[in-house]
Amino acid sequence: PIFKGHRQTPEDIETERMIQEIMCLGETIIPYEKREILSEFLSDHLVQLQGQNLVVTEEGRPFLRNIAYAFDHRAHKNSKTGFSRTI
User: Fold this and answer.
1) CA separation for the pair 30, 28 (Å, rounded)
2) What is the dihedral sign for C-alpha 50, 45, 17, 31?
């Protein structure tokens, strides 16, 4: 084959944006429907919602990977992919 890869859906592109911003900036704009994912992180004071922004707190910085993983719908579907687990 000349090209190897896959086509990204709009949802894939949005997920990629959110994960990159969380990992690099510690904050991102999240759609309202994705906020249900955050209840545990909010109750543990690892993230804060400021309007449409999700902001990772200082306490949440060590858990950036866990927070970003919560938004990755493909990783949840393919849980046996062999990627390293978070604590």
Assistant:
1) 6
2) negative
> Do the Cβ atoms of 46 and 57 come closer than 8 Å?
yes
CB atoms within 10 A of CB 53: 13
Cα separation of 40 and 63, whole Å? 12
Closest among 24, 33, 32 to 67, alpha carbons compared: 24
- pLDDT, tens only, 2-39: 778 888 899 999 999 999 999 999 999 999 988 999 99
Its pTM stands at 0.80
Tokens of 2: 């000349």
Residues forming a β-bridge with 53: 29, 50
The C-alpha atoms of residue 78 and residue 81 are separated, in whole angstroms, by 6
